[in-house]
Amino acid sequence: MPAVITLTTDFGTDDPFVGIMKGVILSIHPKTEIIDLTHGIEPQNVLQAALVLKAAASYFPKKTVHVAVVDPGVGGQRRPLAIKSGSHTFVGPDNGVFTSVLDVQSRCFELTQKKYFLKNVSATFHGRDIFASVAAWIAKGTPLKSLGRPIKDPKTLRLPQPAWNRKRIEGEIVYVDRFGNLTTNISREMISRHCPHFQKLTVKLGRTVIRSLATHYSEVSPGKAGAIINSWDALEIFKREGHAARSLKLKLGRKIQIIPDS
Fold it and tell me: What is the pLDDT of residues 25-41, one digit of tens each?
């Protein structure tokens, strides 16, 4: 099967940046299948990109190379990295974007061998000049140790963690999709542990109160808000045939509570 490279960026699709990165990859390794994971990350939202990688990477074949370019520090002092984690490789800036895929067995390399970069590296487009190029060389079979020096201190983010305070689960909104659905950092496993009866709990977000979890979207009346366990195995707030984020005036970071009914 062909090599697989995924792309995750905050570039959007109105400009030619993503297409140019694909051109670089195919020029180096034509036998590559390039998958657009998403180019809709909020500008400079490194945490959002980290959460997307966590949700998506495991569904790809072994030896997939994942390129993530959400890079507010482009051209500055942050290091370019390649990381081997499990059976996948990740390429991008050392700004915490790979926090969610790192584990104790991950091997990290600072990209220092410029022969694997494009010539005349721009100060504003490392996605093209470094990361796309390096990803193509990795997909072509170049070992990571040839790309640079090993490091032990990749930058990590503080991923927001939910908590149980003996009376309720407390978490927050961590992702908003294009439909306005709000994914939280509260997992199915955590809800099952503290609120085993999904029909006997209360979800609170400010003035919004939702009684019990739906098993599917259509279980909730059109125009009404509901809560459900989504495909990421996390609690999601939605509005049937509507945009929950806009109508409920909820944003990333907004606190949420789940209270088991007594």
Answer: 999 999 999 999 999 99
Length of the chain: 262
Single-letter code of the amino acid located at 5: I
Q: Enter the tokens of residue 151.
A: 């490091």
Nearest Cα neighbor of 177 from 99, 112, 232 is: 232
Residue 199 or residue 44, greater confidence: 44
Structure tokens at 10: 């905050």
Do 251 and 245 meet the contact criterion of CB atoms below 8 Å apart? Answer: yes
Return d(Cα 40, Cα 17) in angstroms, integer: 13
Question: How many Å apart are CA 89 and CA 60, to the nearest integer?
Answer: 11
In terms of DSSP H, where are the helices of the chain? 17-28, 46-56, 126, 133-139, 188-194, 244-247
Name the strand (E) or helix (H) holding 6: strand 3-9
pTM of the model: 0.91
Give the list of residues 6+ apart from residue 129 with CB closer than 8 angstroms, or none: 117, 118, 120, 121, 122
Tokens of 201: 């709990």
- The whole-angstrom distance between residue 261's C-alpha and the CA centroid of its chain comes to 33
Domains, in order of start, for the chain: 3-151 (3.40.50.10790), 163-260 (2.40.30.90)
Q: How open is the CA angle 176-43-223, to the nearest 5 degrees?
A: 25
Q: How far is CA 109 from CA 59, 113, 162, in A?
A: 24, 11, 31
Tell me the two tokens of residue 5. Answer: 């490279």
